[in-house]
Amino acid sequence: MYKSISLLLAILLIAGISFSQEKKVEKSFDGVKSIDLSTASGDCEIVKGNGNAVKVKLTYTYDDEDYEPKMDLRGSNLNLEEKFHANNTRGTSNWVLTVPDGLDIKFNTGSGDFILADLKGNVNYNSGSGDGDIRNFNGELKVNSGSGDFRFENVNGELKSNSGSGDHKITGSNVSAKANTGSGDVRVDDSKGGFKLNTGSGDVEAKSLTLIESGNFNTGSGDSEVQLNAALVEDISVNSGSGDALLDFNGNKIEGKIVMTCKKKGGDIKAPFDFDTEEEYEEGGQTYLKKSVTIGSKDIDIRVGTGTGTAEIRK
What range does the domain containing 182 cover? Predict the structure, then answer.
């Protein structure tokens, strides 16, 4: 009984100490046109505010002797950063920025995560290993992470996304998008625009896709699969180095200049139509098969290719 009470008191004491170590700084700034935020490992969340002021809320657990947050308004640029006065400090920091539309925002961090919601503007995020979650954004968005994952929902405008080994997922968006990862997956669902998606060894998958600009879907060793939600009006290329490459017209009309390729040894080509020409060619010491056909009158290039997988077009 006494041991249980003592243990409970110890837990409450530790919880009380942890709670008392959490500190907050809140400030408001007027006349801000751009924001530069730099953290070591601190996370950042940016949300839309009701007024024109920029409100900054910082919560941290670092020792004040070791950690110094700086908030400086220089003209119309708000500079936010973390200064450390000791090595190997322990603690956490979380920045919440409430901002109006139309700002230029840069967030650089070693390993912090990024959340952005309900905003218009120009945003640039760079992290060594953090994740990004962006929802309901309009404007120009550039994000980069060494090993983090990215999720985009209802993003409209221009998107450039890069990761060394993370996954990228785009949902319900209207974008001109370039997404690249070294070894993760790239997925698009229920979106329209122009897409250049690439991964070194993961899968590329796009479903319910409407292309109003050209599309390029490529993987080095995974599968590349595209399912259309509307007939093509621009060029498209679907490729895999050693996996399957599939273009599914999903009931939409097939029109364009179609070229399908695979390695003669180990590859295969499947299509629901006959080809006008079939030939072999040499590339990189390998023999490839190329089959071509023109269907309809649209001046659209359609290319589906693979090395040792199956290159396929479905109705």
Answer: 149-315
